Amino acid sequence: MIEDNGKATNSPNYRYRLTEETVKILRTMQTPAWKESLKKFLYYHEKLIDIYASKKIMTMMPVNINGEDFKFSAGKHNELQKAIIEEFAPRFAPNSECLYVGDTIEKDLVKNVNKLKKLGFEITLHDKMPDVVLYREDKDWIYFVESVTSIGPMDSKRI
Questions:
Q1: Is the pLDDT of residue 103 over 80?
Q2: Buried b (16+ CB within 10 A) or exposed e, 58-78
Q3: Looking at domain 60-145, which of 3.40.1350.80, 3.40.50.300, 1.10.760.10, 3.40.605.10 is its CATH number?
Q4: Strands, DSSP E only, in 13-140?
Q5: Can you tell me the distance from the alpha carbon of 104 to that of 78, in angstroms, rounded to the nearest whole number?
Q6: DSSP-based three-state secondary structure for 49
Q7: Residue 55, SS3?
Q8: Residue 98 near residue 110 (C-beta atoms within 8 A)
Q9: 114-120 mean pLDDT
Q10: Distance from CA of residue 65 to its chain's centroid?
Q11: Which of these, 153, 154, 150, lies nearest to 9 by C-alpha position?
Q12: Of the residues 45, 49, 122, 140, which has the maximum number of CB atoms within 10 A of its CB?
């Protein structure tokens, strides 16, 4: 019944709007054509319950974290997180351990609370974490990586 306008979700011009089909059906409300119009609409469009069911079985993206296989839900943000873990980390944080990464659906996919606590970071369920936290033991370095897919210039407010 509604759709976005095709802009990136973090664009200031991102909006939702009624689909043309929805506008057509709404124009028939409280007229004799309403029931037939609604019947036609439901015949040609997916029901919300079917859409939600299909999301549960959507294509998942394999990712290897700390030698274990996980699956990220599909999407640009998770594609970038996968690249951070599988491409950035081996190059710029070799032999690092991923202490935290969240999936867009499963927020705490990997969360090593004990190791974070040992390093001096007490976290609770209410804490806002960076998208990826890596720890490189040989240098005792922690990498906090924010995974951002964005449009437009970076200004001081966005940073």
A1: no
A2: eeebebebeeeebebbeeebb
A3: 3.40.1350.80
A4: 16-18, 60-65, 68-73, 97-101, 110-111, 132-136
A5: 7
A6: helix
A7: helix
A8: yes
A9: 91
A10: 18
A11: 150
A12: 45
